[in-house]
Amino acid sequence: MSLGGKLRAGFGALGLRPPPPGREESVEEFVRRNLGAEVFERLIEPFCSGVYAGDPSKLSMKAAFGKVWNLEQNGGSIIGGTFKAIQKRANSQKPPRDARLPTPKGQTVGSFRKGLEMLPNAISARLGDKVKLSWKLSSIVKLENGRYNLTYETPEGLVSLQSRSVVMTVPSSVASSLLRPLSAAAADALSKFYYPPVAAVSISYPKEAIRTTCLIDGELKGFGQLHPRSQGVETLGTIYSSSLFPNRAPPGRILLLNYIGGATNPGILSKTESELVEAVDRDLRKMLINSNAKDPFVLGVRVWPQAIPQFLIGHLDILFAAKAALGNGGFKGLFLGGNYVSGVALGRCVEGAYEVAAEVTGFLSQFLCK
């Protein structure tokens, strides 16, 4: 960033910037107003691409990055809000840390030894036969006794069961279809959320394929890289998987996980797997890989036609409308969850699950014997 860009960001963060417009701002509008054009173009635009695979001119600052949005609301500026948040944290009692958790050594980025699949597998093992696989929910009916009748298509045929509460963590489009017979208003609201396509491309190169200018002490270090659209590349970002976590690649090789597509590039759906690999490889040779390196070894290509929910301007209003339609329609005990409700990051999904669990507990407590 230029000196002028840094000064603009610093003064803006302190509050020397135009006031809020009195309407919901996009991420681009908020950042340009508070921190200037350079911060947006060089930092925030690629960050939005990496986290949401989204278009920052359409993403809602309040919905997508609510914690940062709240800083200005609570403190009059980003810096003012930060000081207030620090004071609040200092005056509040921290919950005790679970002694069973490991203590990180030098870094806070973590994963599971055999990948993220270990988490749902562990949950499944703990719950045992309560977890049903290949059960597809086909209908929900509200009964006169206040319970819900759920009909599933299973390998053994149709199965129905009753429950006082239902938590729906499926994508919003699926929830919309299932809820339409109950509430057209809720279904209409849920159908408005947009999920752009994203492809995950995992490829490996020999270590000598990395440009020497990208190495530190002879090693590829760091989390990865995010790519501004101004660079003229398709790839949204690249994670240095074998640098972050042990045993992700054999000695002498590196593993790179790349994401391509998103709200600004939905055309990936028309590309073949080999074309996606070629596009990623072409982009990497512009900044990370030597141009004369051998072709990468392809470990996997996964295309998600509807990948990440976009928290666009109006997102929170639409979500409120869906929940209100269910509540006003008498569908107590039916809860909406998932990443379009809580946020797209894994941590927010876990936090959101605890929040929904608390709502369910509160609802069911009224039926306990006094």
From TrEMBL:
Its cofactor is FAD. Binds 1 FAD per subunit. Keywords: FAD, Flavoprotein, Heme biosynthesis, Oxidoreductase, Porphyrin biosynthesis. It catalyses: protoporphyrinogen IX + 3 O2 = protoporphyrin IX + 3 H2O2. It comes from the Eukaryota. Pfam families: Amino_oxidase. It is an enzyme of class 1 (oxidoreductase). GO terms for cellular component: chloroplast thylakoid. The keyword Lyase does not apply. Pathway: Porphyrin-containing compound metabolism; protoporphyrin-IX biosynthesis; protoporphyrin-IX from protoporphyrinogen-IX: step 1/1. It is found in: Plastid, Chloroplast. Its main location: plastid. Its EC number is 1.3.3.4. GO terms for biological process: protoporphyrinogen IX biosynthetic process. One of its GO terms (molecular function) is oxygen-dependent protoporphyrinogen oxidase activity. Residues 87-107 are annotated as: Disordered. Belongs to the protoporphyrinogen/coproporphyrinogen oxidase family. Protoporphyrinogen oxidase subfamily. Catalyzes the 6-electron oxidation of protoporphyrinogen-IX to form protoporphyrin-IX. NCBIfam families: proto_IX_ox (TIGR00562). This is Protoporphyrinogen oxidase.
